[in-house]
Amino acid sequence: MTLDEQLAYLTKGCVDVVRAGELKAKLERGHPLTVKVGFDPTAPDLHLGHTVLLRKMKHFQDLGHRVIFVIGDFTGLIGDPTGRSKTRPPLTKDEIAANAETYKAQVFKVLDRDKTVVDFNARWLGALGADGMVKLAARYNVAQMLERREFRQRFDAGKPIAVHEFLYPLAQAYDSVFLKADVELGGTDQLFNLNVGRDIMPGYGLEAQVVMTTPLLEGLDGVEKMSKSLGNYIGVTDSADEMFGKVLSVSDELMWRYYLLLTDDSEASVNATRQQVSDGALHPKAAKMALAKRIVTDFHGAVAAAAAQEAFEARFTRGELDSASLTTVDVVVPVGGSVPLSRVMVDAGLASSNSDATRKIQQGGVKLDREKVTAVTMRIDVGRPELLLEVGRKAVRLVVREE
Predict the structure, then answer these.
(1) Topology adopted by domain 3-214
(2) Which fold has domain 240-317?
(3) What is the CA radius of gyration of the chain?
(4) Sequence-ordered list of residues with C-beta below 8 angstroms from that of 53, at least 6 positions apart, any chain
(5) For residues 35 and 182, is the Cβ–Cβ distance under 8 A?
(6) Residue ranges of the domains in the chain?
(7) Per the confidence metrics, is the pTM higher than 0.90?
(8) E runs forming strands in 121-275
(9) β-strand 34-39 against 210-214: which pairing, if any?
(10) Count of C-beta atoms within a 10 Å radius of residue 241
(11) How far is it, in rounded angstroms, from Cα 172 to Cα 228?
(12) Which of 17, 39, 343, 403 gives 20 to 30 Å between its CA and that of 358?
């Protein structure tokens, strides 16, 4: 690639690049850059929203740069205040260690294992000691910290800000100092933290790092950012069939954002495909099927992706369903009585709560024996001892019996 092509490839899909001119100058030197990104192991599983950032790391690997995946086993004990209206409860060391192992197993679904340096920031932050932490804290002042939106809002509202929360962006910044980072990547919500690194590095005799942020990916609902707690996520460990079906469930409009952020297609290529759909030369479903197949291929391979597509088309296009291969769920009802369908959905793992089950019914995503359920008060009794229950892309066979 030419220098300009490299710059376009590395900045594709980014929201902030601070600053592009500095990145170009670093690339011009012809030496591999040290690119750092930190993940606090606050949850055990990664989803496609996380992979937007991981893919950007992979882009740097593709061009021969050194990528360091920093697991925040030290900063995780502090708790990132980003997006928090109150102090984040700290994780225990055991929770952090368990989650970190899961992260290490999952990130290589995107990153090149042989080209990735995995490190833990307790290695250098723990070694700072009290004296070093005080010296680090002296490099920033309270007025600068209160420029952070979350801190300012809490301060103005009279809500408490724990002193240790001010240490989080400084600890993350010191990661960049210790690793002599040329570039730090993060989500748009990390812009403040990343810029603290830029601010303090010259004081250590280092060139300020370039800061690059990637957008937060909307979840399946197209509104909220992808989150496991909101149930609108596609997990990197989801089965091929489940992943394929979830991608097919996104709106036609959101599909293009997934194309841009979850594939290596250039913006021009994505726009060209979008124009084909707009002109009627390509059906939106065909474009979405192609996207689903590519995403599943990335995580499960081409054979599994092809099988997932065939299974989807058999069930949802041709109406075929092999009930013998479905999981069987026993439903026990009182003698002469019945149980709410919403409770059955929760017990079968097809809804996270009764309210979630009600919402799925209201959205028209629930079927019994291929008939759409419209009443949220629907109940199950022994009058139909075997039933096929479908919730979205999932299906189970219900066997109903009295106590």
Answers:
(1) Rossmann fold (3.40.50)
(2) Tyrosyl-Transfer RNA Synthetase (1.10.240)
(3) 25
(4) 37, 185, 186, 187, 214
(5) yes
(6) 3-214, 240-317, 323-402
(7) no
(8) 183-187, 210-214
(9) unpaired
(10) 19
(11) 25
(12) 403
